[in-house]
Amino acid sequence: MNNQHFGSCLCGSTKYTLSGDFQSFFLCHCTRCQKGTGSAHAANLFATDSSLTWLQGESNVKIYQYPNSLHRKSFCQNCGSALPTYIKNINCVVVPAGSLDSPVPISPTAKIFVSNSASWLKNTGYVPCFDGLPT
């Protein structure tokens, strides 16, 4: 326990550290995560009994709580980047994997709510891959 993980938002105005270990890493395909990310799924790490410390820009962090659910999203009010959020009911810090500046220490544990997967995500094996923006 007490591994240090560092992260920030896209504009760099908000920075954080998380002390603790990640127990799971879910790729969530639920419709709430699709709406919240604007993509096919969310990629969230879960850390119970961990400590989240804002190093800079805590006043930039806004929180959206979906009514009557555990779905909670923290984000930078300047650039909109997803940021960690503490969910008290389950004593857990949920960390968007893409917000980490340090390496993600575990591989995804599971894809969840796959019955809600975006239809355009299916059969993408034929889609060309590029290391950068195609010309």
From TrEMBL:
The keyword Zinc applies. The keyword Cell inner membrane does not apply. PROSITE patterns: CENP_V_GFA. Pfam families: GFA. PANTHER family: CENP-V_GFA DOMAIN-CONTAINING PROTEIN-RELATED (PTHR33337:SF40), GFA DOMAIN-CONTAINING PROTEIN (PTHR33337). This is GFA family protein. InterPro entries: CENP-V/GFA, Mss4-like_sf. It comes from Motilimonas cestriensis.
